[in-house]
Specification:
heterodimer; A: OB fold (Dihydrolipoamide Acetyltransferase, E2P); six-stranded antiparallel sheet; five-stranded mixed beta barrel; 1 helix; B: alpha+beta; Peroxisomal Thiolase, Chain A, domain 1; two-stranded antiparallel sheet; 14 helices; 34% helix
Chain lengths: 148, 427
């Protein structure tokens, strides 16, 4: 996927003189502590993470916007990430802006030796806030911290 | 009015290899994907009573051959091994398709579409997978068992490398959310859930033990006895033999990953009786992509949509289906699809399992193959499901034949819990 910069806006395009990659930009924003999504210029829907064409109106015209960072943890589970050698919580989160995303949940109060406690995290309307972490392989990622 | 194939298509031959590990299982020891495919292809041609010369094109589904065999371009290699390439003056068409665990289902669909479109009359389609062994050009024909990291890489490469993996979003974790959402929706406590999970393993095992080509076809009670348990329930509740993987799901709630191949011979229906006196009609299909996330998690729109397409094309309803094969990569993908497909009503599957209704002796049989408990050769799943359903519909399934012989069967395959494929077959 390629993007053409025009001022503050980023247009997915098949050509142009200032072509830049979306995935690369998303992770570069994360490295600078910015969690950014796409707002569709055609219909206003917000996409997180950014993607190619708008699933709502088909537009290729997006601008980067900072995400509120707020969301609700809808479902959660606990288990191993065998490649990274960690035991962790994973959640499905509905962001305030509407997107559904999945990723690591941060909650130091969760006792990993009592995995059955995860049942209490499902459909429990728990508020979370996005937080930038570095995953065990070194890449930046967005995690979801449980708010109590 | 649903879509219709522009030209009816039949299945006139089926074949599968013994499922197992090419590093351990005697029947397939030291084989590469060429020998596996050729075994299944020859068996299907024999079944159909045709030769390679009569086949117009080849569609092979495969997921990980780059990782297991450093091999691209399987279509080119397999068409030669299948006797359809250079050497008999044929100069025919072949291509590999990849759709994670649904790869062979996509290959079958593409084969069907080319016949329906009038491009070809007879094609061979299916899948082959080696996903436990590594074979390369430095030691041709000498597979070695993959390291754990290599095995994990085979699975992890189906994730979105730009999002899922760096963000620590794993399918198995989502699938444990599916099952917890199902528990909550239908008010199951954890003890009842484990009764249900045990019943799925028992049902799959009961069906699969009669299939000589299954990777795992030992009676569950024998496995329990070998481990010193007086019954299978105690065995399945043992944290040593059935440890928690992604709570509440355990090791046995997942697939028995293996190697193997399968093929079907597809034929324009107006020609099929020239070859096969018991052609099985390919009645309908659907495919819908989604994510493994949904607002309710105990139901998934991609499954409902793919089956809607297939039912409309076939002109049948869920109540007409006599037998189902469902790709239960994890137990969640058994319970939830069977309800989204309409084969069971909402909240009925867990009870049906406990009541024993899903074995070949029950009134709503599921996974006559043994499901993923009997073996999961990822890129070959859909064609292996098709093989067992065709055998059932012909009344040739042997020891676990459903009586009366079923008229309509449905296969549900799914790639990475986000690429749902449905096939409906009838006689």
């Amino acid at each position: 996927m390629i993007v053409v910069q025009r001022g503050m806006q980023w247009f997915i395009s098949s050509g142009g003189s200032e072509v830049q990659p979306v995935v690369n930009l998303f992770y570069n924003y994360l490295k600078k502590e910015n969690i950014m999504g796409f707002r569709c210029s055609g219909c206003g829907i917000i996409l997180f993470p950014p993607q190619g064409l708008c699933p709502n109106c088909g537009s290729n015209d997006f601008s980067w916007i900072p995400m509120s960072g707020r969301g609700k943890l809808m479902f959660a589970s606990v288990g191993p990430h065998r490649m990274m050698g960690i035991q962790f919580l994973q959640g499905t989160v509905r962001l305030e802006e509407g997107s559904w995303v999945s990723g690591m949940v941060l909650d130091e109060s969760f006792d990993l030796s009592k995995p059955e406690k995860i049942l209490g995290y499902n459909e429990a309307d728990i508020n979370v806030v996005m937080e930038i972490i570095q995953n065990p392989e070194g890449a930046k990622a967005v995690a979801f911290r449980v708010l109590r | 009015m649903g879509r219709r194939l522009a030209r009816p298509v039949d299945i006139i031959g089926v074949g599968i290899t013994k499922l197992g590990l090419v590093t351990e299982t005697a029947e397939i020891m030291n084989m590469t994907s060429r020998e596996l495919w050729t075994w299944a292809a020859y068996e299907a041609m024999q079944d159909a009573g045709i030769t390679p010369k009569e086949i117009d094109a080849l569609f092979v589904g495969n997921m990980v051959s780059e990782l297991s065999e450093d091999q691209y371009h399987l279509g080119n290699i397999l068409i030669q091994w299948t006797g359809m390439g250079t050497g008999n003056g044929a100069w025919k068409s072949a291509v590999r398709l990849e759709g994670a665990c649904a790869s062979s289902s996509h290959a079958i669909r593409q084969g069907v579409f080319t016949i329906a479109a009038g491009m070809y009359d007879i094609v061979i389609a299916g899948g082959v997978e080696i996903n436990n062994a590594k074979i390369g050009s430095k030691a041709p024909g000498e597979p070695r068992r993959m390291t754990n990291e290599e095995r994990l890489r085979c699975i992890y490469c189906h994730y979105d490398q730009a999002w899922d993996l760096p963000q620590l979003s794993l399918q198995d974790m989502n699938l444990s959310q599916w099952i917890m959402a199902y528990m909550k929706r239908y008010g199951l406590d954890i003890e009842t859930l484990y009764d249900v999970l045990d019943a799925r393993i028992s049902s799959n095992n009961f069906n699969g033990q009669f299939n000589p080509k299954a990777y795992w076809n030992r009676p569950l009670e024998d496995a329990a006895a070998d481990a010193g348990f007086s019954n299978s329930r105690e065995y399945l509740r043992s944290s040593e033999h059935n440890p928690i993987a992604h709570w509440p799901l355990r090791l046995w709630d997942g697939p028995r990953r293996c190697d193997g191949a399968g093929t079907v011979i597809l034929c324009a229906a107006e020609l099929s009786k020239q070859f096969q006196q018991k052609p099985i009609h390919y009645l309908g299909t659907g495919n819908s992509h989604g994510t493994s996330l949904s607002e309710k998690m105990y139901t998934h729109p991609m499954i409902i949509e793919s089956s809607r397409q297939a039912y409309e094309m076939a002109g049948v309803s869920p109540g007409d289906i006599d037998a189902v094969e469902v790709y239960d990569y994890l137990a969640s993908e058994y319970l939830i699809p069977l309800e989204d497909l309409g084969y069971f009503g909402r909240g009925e599957v867990w009870k049906a399992l406990i009541e024993g209704r899903t074995t070949f002796k029950g009134d709503r049989p599921v996974n006559l193959s043994g499901g993923s408990s009997a073996g999961s050769a990822v890129g070959s799943i859909g064609v292996i499901q098709t093989y067992y359903l065709v055998k059932q519909l012909r009344g040739e399934a042997g020891a676990n034949q459903i009586e009366p012989v079923p008229r309509i069967g449905l296969a549900y395959d799914c790639g990475a819990a986000r690429d749902a494929v449905v096939h409906i077959f009838g006689r």
